[in-house]
Amino acid sequence: MYTPLHGGMLELYRRLDALFAGWAGECGAEEYLFPAYLPAQALARLNYFESFPHLATFPVALDSDPSNLRQFAAGNASLEDGTLRLARLAPAREVLTPAACYHFYHTLQGLRASAPLHLTTRATCFRREAHYVPMERQWSFSMREIVCIGTAAEVKDFLERMQRKAAAFLERIKLPVRWQAATDPFFDPSRSARYLAQRLDPVKTEMVLNGRLAIGSVNFHRSYFGEAFDLQRDGAPASSGCIAFGLERWVQAVCSAYGAQPGDWPLP
Amino acid sequence: MYTPLHGGMLELYRRLDALFAGWAGECGAEEYLFPAYLPAQALARLNYFESFPHLATFPVALDSDPSNLRQFAAGNASLEDGTLRLARLAPAREVLTPAACYHFYHTLQGLRASAPLHLTTRATCFRREAHYVPMERQWSFSMREIVCIGTAAEVKDFLERMQRKAAAFLERIKLPVRWQAATDPFFDPSRSARYLAQRLDPVKTEMVLNGRLAIGSVNFHRSYFGEAFDLQRDGAPASSGCIAFGLERWVQAVCSAYGAQPGDWPLP
User: Fold this and answer.
1) In chain B, which end has fewer C-beta atoms inside a 10 angstrom radius, N or C?
2) pLDDT digits over A175-207, tens only?
């Protein structure tokens, strides 16, 4: 599960990302580059640890006491089986980015907006899975997101425009993708009010390739993040929504359909 | 310690990185994009855990047993003090990238080269420190590296050309940088043969800004990585070397000297 990109695959990755970033630019979205992690406290506001403990990856360091470090050093000299014998850890306060757009709600905490905001970022995300497949189901992968924060109507309008744009592009390049309603992968769905709400009124639509792999999604969050992070649009909790693209999966999809030669890719 | 980049600062970050990537292009360096982590086993080959246990950050997930996840979920609902109460962890087998160029030696393991190789990458690196300062001393930061793998003479020639190029640029933009011999920050220097070797015959030269902050470095590794990863150049262990740029520190340096207006930056 270690897939460096270079040559044609890296070029394809960049051209796809530039295409999506271009769509962001057409909305006037401002680009951000975020750290690799979020404060755990920000995710606690979203009940993240109750909803998705199985997906989370934490960046942890060792307790810096010299005798602890020495013990660790002595215990991990050869590492025959590849598994680290971790010593005592320093307090853990962060989570490696689970989804690119979380950074915006945390960063913009306390927002008082009088117009819709459009934003974009590409982030390295971590999502622990039961099994991994290179380019398809990676522990760590790249996600490009375009986000709108505004009134419910503004966000819905943004998501419709984005979905039309993505659908037209998918049709033009003839990828076997269907749009399907989906839910987030909750840990304990039957106990989750949010899961039940998502089942009753779907807010997530995935671009499903070959009937089995989501290469992107359109998500309406209602005012969930607006309430959790005190984001207001004209005095009321803001709504938000995003379109997200899993870049490695897109690279794989275009490459499977058109091969590895840049001249053969139906991209701008 | 959470510094998103956007607007002018993001533009400056990109223009500086494009400048260094351009220098890589002039050497014919191929660009790679790597995962956020390395297998711990690769770093064990470098005695990394004995040399730098105090710097390492590990990406860890919870043991996926449902009762373990439920216990974690219950213990981290509110997180008043911001510190996670981690439950039982899954086996840890990876380390978040400590330095961009390590990826190359690991990826190219078993290389049999008959000409020098030039390579480049930008990676998000993690380095734990005793204290942090935004843009200056971050837990996680961006490193652009240009690497040469070849004979000792080829690598030295490459490093000299790169150092001349960087020195000429630093002089042209009038940053108060001095080149200073340095050593890697070993955990227990007096016990480390590698540290003593570095003291006797310096292999690291840093670009030190204002007498206190290294914004980049030129490093000659001799055949250290060539031997550890079985990289050969014409039948002998290859030498390697790199020039590395800490992008956030460069952004800060240019911005301190020339302000935040793109028109005022002395960049191509």
Assistant:
1) C
2) 999 999 998 888 888 888 788 777 777 799 999
Q: How far is CA B74 from the centre of its chain?
A: 38
Q: Give which of A9, A32, A37, A38 to mutate to test B binding, by max B Cβ within 10 Å.
A: A37
Task: Give this complex's ipTM.
Answer: 0.95
pLDDT digits (tens, 9 = 90+) for A200-231: 777 999 999 999 999 999 999 999 999 999 99
Which domain, by its residues, includes B225?
7-56+98-264
Chain A residue with minimal CA distance to B31?
A6
Residue A2 domain-assigned? no
Task: Indicate which CATH number applies to the domain containing A29.
Answer: 3.30.930.10
Flag if B10 and A4 touch (Cβ within 8 Å).
no
Dihedral angle, C-alpha B61, B127, B35, B122, nearest 10 °: 160
B13, B15, B33, B251, best to mutate vs chain A, most A CBs in 10 Å: B33
Boundary residue ending a domain (A41, A74, A96): A96
In sequence order, the β-bridge partners of residue B217 are B206, B244
B29-39, pLDDT tens digit by residue?
999 999 999 99
What total of structural domains would you count in chain B?
A: 2
Q: Does one domain contain both B43 and B168?
A: yes
B64 lies in the same domain as B116: no
Regarding whether B255 and B213 lie in a shared domain, the answer is yes
What is the rounded CA–CA span in Å between residue B192 and residue B181? 18
As a whole number of Å, the end-to-end CA separation of chain B is 31
